[in-house]
Amino acid sequence: MPSAAKTLRPAYEHPWAVRACHWTNAVAITVLTLSGLRIFAAFPSFGSKIPEHDLIEAVPQAITIGGWLGGALQWHFTFMWIFAGGGVLYVISQIASGHYRTVAFTRRDIAGLWPMARHYFFFGPKPVATGQYNPLQKLAYTTAIGLGALSLLTGIVMYKPTQSSTLGLVFGGYHGARLVHFLAMCGLLAFVPGHIVMVALHGWDNFASMLTGWKRHPEYTPSRETR
Amino acid sequence: MKEALDPHVTRRELLKLSPLLLLGGFAVPAFRERLLDAGVAWSDATSAAVFRGGHRAPVFADDDVVPFERFPYNGYDVLQPSIDFDRWALAVGGAVSRAGRYSLEQIQALPKITQNTRHICVEGWDAIGRFGGSRLADFLDLVGADPRARFITVTCADDYYESLDMATARQPQSLLCYEMYDRPLDRGHGAPLRLQLPTKLGYKQAKYVMTITVTDVLPAKRSYWGDQGYSWYGGL
Fold first, then answer.
1. Which is higher by pLDDT, B166 or A209?
2. What is the CATH number of domain B57-228?
């Protein structure tokens, strides 16, 4: 922790809705991924290929939940509501509170991407914090929210391909939605290791802030507290 | 300006997250099954509530139809249950004004619908096929089904059974199907009569149908695969 940061007073960085949705969807995305892999294993293809049974075991059973297709679907059909509920609550609360401004990636953040990447990956100097999140964080979080929305929309198309056939056109129909749904999961999974490594590097105070909302030693304090 | 954070503040904020511990119920085996059943039941109820019977499932050009040989049979057990085709008749009962046995000719006398629609399996594969038959809605009118009845149940020549919500049964693309690819149904596809429901998953589209009952109450045995853990509604 840089000594300068210690002079900043504690900051309330994560409102309740953000923390609640973060942990709810951390659980939901885990369950949806593991059950989704079991569902995918029942027909590991994105085309209209007619199944030949005894398809290669594309997904090891050990990284799935539900046991069989029906069980995995039960998990998926239960947690899709928790995921969607958490996601919608998050977006509404972010917009209603104006808190989204701290995290939404905008054009103004583009210039700061390279200096931040240079600091993270090439031992470059640390850019001065100008907000609660740096441009790379904003990009990652905003992309993750976008991928979540994409998962939800393609999930609706797969769940109700005839009732939502119009929405399905956006994703190239049932097959396209299956592919985009899978790719969105891959994108979310790609986000997770980097996220966890960064949290581990930043230590307990930062981690605890996602539990209590408060950061004792923030690197940046907003001029107006949104307590 | 406070240098240290009041522990009461952080503790209170942490407690505000306590409702999330309810998710732990899924880790308890005694609760898990009930929670997941409730989740699927909720999904089914929501699916039924938002179902638009007037919204047609996509239909496809003849060129998009897979060759007959490649349309999967995908029976769950035997593909040729024993059926006396000469004496076959559909037994209709329950909340209908004209209960009785209906021959294939009587069913075929209803307006014939031919449609190229997508058959989607719960496993995730799909095949666009060509189906012909009578509208289930027309048949329900023929037998004088109670318009207020909520469900139909069907039993099959094998030990398969299914049930449908009335909104789906009356969706104009829901067929009592006796033809595929302009030929009479072959045995593997459910001869002499099957359900063909573009708005339902494959397992709802029972083959070898022997009886139809119009009812307000679902029997304990509601759906062959639904009873084993798949969604009962199975709507697309």
1. B166
2. 3.90.420.10
Taking CA–CA distances from B10, the nearest residue in chain A reads: A212
Residue A164, domain member (yes or no): yes
Q: Please name the member of A20, A68, A80 whose beta carbon is closest to the beta carbon of B20.
A: A20
- Which of chain B's residues have a Cβ under 8 Å away from the Cβ of A165? 55, 57-58
SS3 call for B33: helix
All residue ranges of chain B with pLDDT < 50 are 1-2
- CB of B197 closer than 8 Å to CB of B188: no
Residues near B211 by Cβ (< 8 Å), separated by ≥ 6?
B90, B91, B92, B93, B154, B155
Residue A59 lies in a domain: yes
- Min Cα–Cα distance to chain B from A114, Å: 34
CA distance A27 to B25: 12
Residue A52 has pLDDT above 60, yes or no: no
Burial label, B228 (beta-carbon count in 10 A; 0-12, 13-18, 19+): exposed
- Give a yes or no: residue A152 inside a domain: yes
pTM of the model: 0.88
The answer to whether residue A30 neighbours chain B at the CB level (below 8 Å) is no
